Amino acid sequence: MAVAAPGQLNLDESPAWGSRSVDCFEKLEQIGEGTYGQVFMAREIRTGEIVALKKIRMDNEREGFPITAIREIKILKKLHHDNVIKLKEIVTSPGPERDDHGKIDGNKYKGSIYMVFEYMDHDLTGLSDRPGMRFTVPQIKCYMRQLLTGLHYCHVNQVLHRDIKGSNLLIDNEGNLKLADFGLARSFSNDHNGNLTNRVITLWYRPPELLLGTTKYGPAVDMWSVGCIFAELLHGKPILPGKNEPEQLNKIFELCGAPDEVNWPGVSKIPWYNNFKPSRPMKRRVRETYKHFDRHALELLERMLTLDPSQRISAKDALDAEYFWTDPLPCDPKRFDIHEFSIYASSRSCMEG
Ligand code: AMP
């Protein structure tokens, strides 16, 4: 196996990874701000191919290469699927980099490391936030099917995403949807379901079991987030926009009812249940709140927004739901109206940390 030169990454299976310089790419513009650094649109000089470069910021790192980046790279190296963003390679910049004003950038002397991804034109939040944008039912079915297919693939490969939300669902002008940002993802094993980090998943998409403090969880956490996105696509805006954890739980209880030992056996043993359990009875109102949704959509949504994670529908079963097999059928991504999407060069949610 090739030995990495100083400042380069040596990733076991592909010795070539980490051996090229970022100078093989021309940065075109900054398109995002991720968990640990900026994201740029760039052109590979030799081939002209457009890619996304995600810079791994090391200036705050006392302990060397960030563990979240190591996790993301390790996980993405083993995932190969049409609905999961493709990590093409890792490139490095050996010396200090300068910003547009000639100032030495962030991590002064250590150099930088970039992840090179296939480029995607939009993210789902950016696309749906466009003024006047309303997806058609076949488009929603098409996106949902791709989201579930990608997630099913992750779950079968024992990977939890743990940050499913619109800005992490990237979309190209051909209508393809890919899961991205695996910075919070981790591997899990079916037989050892315990002691995972509790504070994961962006608040609005976080399931009740995490808000109640569990550290024992599995793929069902991602399925709650999928339910929130599904309802958001149909409703036109986020359905559970809490400002803090107690408010988030309260919004969930108002919509899904209060959890108890009848609808969620074992809930009273979850660490913070007694602190947060509502003092008054609250009944489930999913059906009445979304009575204007089509019958099959509502049936599927009910099964995604199920309080008890052990009863929540899996990605695999969701793909078999009537919703995807009844008229109007999901459209073929290839038949999306590309021109409608291309009016603007791209649409992304505003840059967030
Ligand atoms: P991330 O840290 O992966 O969440 O990236 C932050 C933002 O950068 C995303 O919300 C996207 O808008 C953008 N971005 C990330 N990866 C890509 C990509 N492969 N193609 C285009 N834009 C991307």
TrEMBL record:
Residues 25-324 form the Protein kinase domain. ATP binds at K54. It catalyses: [DNA-directed RNA polymerase] + ATP = phospho-[DNA-directed RNA polymerase] + ADP + H(+); L-seryl-[protein] + ATP = O-phospho-L-seryl-[protein] + ADP + H(+); L-threonyl-[protein] + ATP = O-phospho-L-threonyl-[protein] + ADP + H(+). One of its GO terms (molecular function) is ATP binding. GO terms for cellular component: cyclin-dependent protein kinase holoenzyme complex; nucleus. Keywords: ATP-binding, Kinase, Nucleotide-binding, Phosphoprotein, Serine/threonine-protein kinase, Transferase. Belongs to the protein kinase superfamily. CMGC Ser/Thr protein kinase family. CDC2/CDKX subfamily. This is Protein kinase domain-containing protein. It comes from Coptis chinensis.
